[in-house]
Amino acid sequence: MKGPDNMFKNKAFAKHAIPVLVFGVLYFFIFAGLQNDHINALQPAMAQLYGWSEIKITNPITIAGFVSIPFVTIVGMCMVRWGATKVLFPSLLALGGSTLLLANSAGNYTIYAIALFLVRLLVVPVQLGSFMLCNS
Predict the structure, then answer these.
(1) CA 61, 29, 130, 3: dihedral to nearest 10 degrees?
(2) Which of 38, 53, 59, 76 lies at a C-alpha separation of 20 to 30 Å from 3?
(3) What is the pLDDT of residues 3-22, one digit of tens each?
């Protein structure tokens, strides 16, 4: 009998699936905690420091969130076609560069908005790549 009731009776499946599920929950927690909630904590300080409005501070993440919905499909197709590491490695380099750019934006809203948009968007290949590497 096949189905969800019997999937963990297969020891090989359970051996691979359980760590993927645990890492999936962990990665999602890190993503939700660090990627979404940090802006709520930083927003009052940034508004006071730079004089930007709340909307101006949070818009890059909101827009990138909408763009990331179709981006998941594109990144997934690229990873299936070329492999997770060939997409993940340049994405990690771009993510690192974006975080450096964000850290050095120092009141320049254009640089801040572009860097924050890229940081939010580049989390997608990191998550998908992590799942694919944990699953293989």
Answers:
(1) -120
(2) 76
(3) 555 656 777 777 877 787 78
What is the pLDDT, as a whole number, of residue 108? 92
Query: By three-state DSSP, how is residue 31 classified?
Result: helix
Q: Which residue reads 């300080």 in tokens?
A: 45
What does the DSSP assignment read for 113-127? Answer: HHHHHHHHHHHHHHH
- Cα within 13 Å of Cα(2), Cβ side: 0
| Tokens describing residue 123 | 């989390």
Token pair 């890492």 is found at 23
User: Which pair of tokens denotes residue 35?
Assistant: 């990627």
Distance CA 128, CA 24 (A): 10
